[in-house]
Amino acid sequence: MNLFSKFVNRLGLVGTPRPGFPPTAPRPSPIFVDPDNIEEQITPQYCAQRFYPVRLGEVINDKYHIVSKLGFGTSSTVWLAWDVQRKWWQTQQWVTIKMLTRSASGKSTAETELEVSRLVLQANPLCEGRQYLRTVIDSFEVTGPHGLHTGLVYETMRESLKTFQRRHRERRISESLLKALLEPVLHGLDYLHSECNIIHTDLKPDNILLGVESRHAIEEVVQAEIDEPTPYKVEDDRAIYCSRNFGCLRGIPGKPKLSDFGLAVRGDELPLHFHPIQPNRYQAPEVILGLGWTYSADVWNLGVMLWDMIENTSLFDAETAEGDYSVQRHLEEMSFLLGPPPEDMVNRGDIAPRYFSSEGGEILQHNCEPARGASLEASLTAFSGEGKPQYLRFVRRMLQWRPEDRATARELLKDPWLAR
């Protein structure tokens, strides 16, 4: 009896279960009695009716047998599944399904993901960067108790860089490991920009995933579900399951891939975009100041993210004493660490004059002290020696006030620090 058959038997099912796994079917797992919210229930503005009530053992779209929950977000839940229609010659056996909420099942996420996946696969099949982008391999729609939901099917990946960072001492990524991770990420970003004309707009450690080290790592998750079923709690018409991760590394993880293109935009349709993008602390200056942005916003975003990974603290705090995001504080911290903005940026648009003088770009109000030190150099504590000045020059090529002054992903791949 193979591992999948054991999972089916463990749920008290015979053969391949029919779609719509019955909610009343017995499940040998403890039920949460704790009334506190768990998993997706803790996300901002959670509404149960927006989420499709996935159940372990369910076969979705007559094709994907749900085996374990891998994660959740504000607009989706993520599940490990077995492709019951897979042919013997097809290698894709275990897949990951992102089940989108009703409000996310529109142009802003599902269609954008599918469009980007199509562009990535067709743009230049021979380009090295293509292999570092995680694309949709299938999609479907399913009707839940409160409406229609879209499911996106992907290759199964181990974990995000955010989770991977937690595995390291003091949660700091070493210089050598950062280089090993960064090179494929830059290849992927260059392919996205140069070959596909796509701006990601949402680069963060959560959206860069590491591959599974081996098939055995997936099978161990399935075996763990058999031996010790996932706890869950019952909420009205659904069960809220706890997520199960892949546990300790059993070898070298697979290649990193850029993922989550639901907020991506075309860079070749307009010279500049103006709508807000990026997590608050990763926002590029031109985004904050409303001056219009393009591909170089991703490069700024990546520079801040890398700094956070190597220092295990945010380069920009950008918060008030009450914990609210503050544009004033964010711009002040940029000025402390990078020097004042160029006059031509200060004198463009309506937002910059609220914060900077028209001559010299000096900040008009000083409401904070530098969050990480008086300069970028003083903020870098993770390593020293010959690598420190080279790394600082490398990061400064990304963290430039003017978008046009930043290096491209392709140029960064040739940087002496990365090559050393």
From TrEMBL:
Catalysed reaction, written as an equation: L-seryl-[protein] + ATP = O-phospho-L-seryl-[protein] + ADP + H(+); L-threonyl-[protein] + ATP = O-phospho-L-threonyl-[protein] + ADP + H(+)
Biological process terms in GO annotation: regulation of mRNA processing; spliceosomal complex assembly
Top EC class for this record: transferase
Cited PROSITE patterns: PROTEIN_KINASE_DOM (PS50011), PROTEIN_KINASE_ST (PS00108)
Protein kinase domain span: 64-418
One Pfam assignment: Pkinase
GO MF, one example: protein serine/threonine kinase activity
Domain of life of the organism encoding this protein: Eukaryota
EC annotation from Swiss-Prot or TrEMBL: 2.7.11.1
Key words, A-Z: ATP-binding, Kinase, Nucleotide-binding, Serine/threonine-protein kinase, Transferase
Protein name: non-specific serine/threonine protein kinase
Classification of source organism: Eukaryota, Fungi, Dikarya, Ascomycota, Pezizomycotina
